[in-house]
Amino acid sequence: MTFPDLFERFSSEILPLGCADATHLRFQSIARFASARAGDAPFTVNDRDQIVFIAKGSSKLVAEASHGREQVVAFHFVGDLVLVPARGAHAYTLYALDNCDLIFFQSDEFFKLARYETGMIDEALERAMLALARSREKAVALGRKSAQERLASFFLNMAERIGSKHEEGWVMQLPMSRSDIADSLGLTIETVSRQLSELRDAGLLTTQGRSQVHLLDWDGLASRAGHLVPAE
Asked: Model-level pTM?
């Protein structure tokens, strides 16, 4: 896809309906385009916060601490708006999980323009609150949940984000590797494989190949994830 095509996708997803032509042109003037193959890191020098729109593909945000230690902070998919922080106490890198097309902005320029469009602030706030909610859930999982609870929570979250609802449950194609999942959940690959086998043996899900997961029992997985029973 060409840059104009990708920007139109950003515009339709992010810019408010009825946005003034002048505002559209201002955002287009500060937008940049990056294409990345699976495994590539399109932003290798990151001395300023970046706002990245995932126009095609999927990605993972990785934080690096001292001594080469890394943590997968989050996964992002088509239509997501991602903040990639500048290097500070940790270095953050966005990696492509599969072939990606990205529209990106310097965050200060992005928010300077966004302040003139009420709808843009509403959109950014709504997305920020959703990201915060996901971060809270992950903090609870990493701090208090068992390995199986973490993995079950992960599958439910991914189903809500990229899954398709069918008569017999939810089906999704996961673009990340088992290693990525393990890094994200603070587990080893062996632990992820063992817990996945237990969930399969319990009849809660099935897998096909290395990427397709079919969730068969949502309530059963929610119980394994440590979710509270909804109040009646």
From this structure: 0.93
